[in-house]
Specification:
By secondary structure, this protein is α/β, with parallel strands linked by helices. The protein has twelve helices and twelve strands. Helices cover about 35% and strands about 15% of the residues. The N and C termini lie far apart (about 50 Å). The structure holds pyridoxal-5'-phosphate. Pyridoxal-5'-phosphate binds next to helix 3.
Length: about 350
Amino acid sequence: MDREHDQLTPATLAVALGRPERAPGAPVVEPVTFTSTYLAGGPVNYARVGNPTWTALEDVIGGLESGDALTFASGLAAIDAVLSLVPMGGRVVAPAHSYNGTTGLLTEMAGEGRLEVSAVDISDTAAVLAQLDGADLLYIESPTNPMMEVADLPALVREARARGIVTAVDNTFATPLLQTPLADGVDIVVHSATKYLSGHSDVLLGALVTAPTDPGRELHARLLTRRSLHGAIPGPMEAWIVLRGIRTLSVRLERACASAAELVDRLSAHPAVTRVRYPGLGAMIAVEVHGGADGADRVCAATSLWTHSTSLGGVESQLERRRAQPLEVETVPESLIRLSVGIEDVEDLWCDLAQALDQA
Ligand SMILES: *Cc1c(COP(=O)(O)O)cnc(C)c1O
């Protein structure tokens, strides 16, 4: 990011960054570069190490988070790279509730003796701090998927830094438009770009962002080495699809957040709903309904506009009973339905959801 870009707002950066250099006749959009290798003598010699289409996307994601981005084959590949930094037998403090692939990966690595996990309620700051001494990584997700718990990032990061513990925050739910963890001193930001950044439910891709500081650059170099040697790289076409999607991030999110706030009010007044979980930001909502797992299953089966599918962050509204997923942890209530609010008309969304809730 050059100096003039420092003055621009995130909505503008999402559109302006990652473009080819301005020259008469140059393309306006970064092309997809399909090549496995490069002519000798340049900065990158092989396409497992670098690709210009990744670089354009990394410029945008890095600019939005005010750091240096690396893209990966998926969100989980990016998370795996972060966990690979933990020394053999080291300890990770992580949320008891988080994306179920993250808890699944941590559980698997712990089962193999690769690392230890201290699972905490990430919204209970005192409980997290009680586990920090001697830890190697504080892994945070906020808001959490699907329980919508919110972590006190500045307080947790201050204490982790004082103990020399690396911090990572999964920022998938908030996006850099609503939360920039590097500004709180976090070392690594994690994204499943599969969700809001791409926004159209048609691609998988992940990203990590590190701070533009000396320790941040050192982490970036280690993570780049991991990516190059483990090979969990995005395809150039996938990077291009995310680059195209991220251009409209701010208008998509603005609409989705406004609709989510409206739906939260109406859901809270619906007789089938026993609890609404909404952290006050973003476009993700969790509701618990009467009738337990069966009631929630009936709701999910009864929508015609909302799509009954896993995943989130697309232009199309989606809903799902999370405990229907085999990996979901048992402390997530059986009747919890996760709602990802898209960009359809809010009255159409409510009409479909209200009649489905009547089936609970
Ligand atoms: C989906 C998701 C992931 C995993 O991302 P993939 O791109 O599916 O690998 C990680 N964290 C959160 C919060 C997610 O929602």
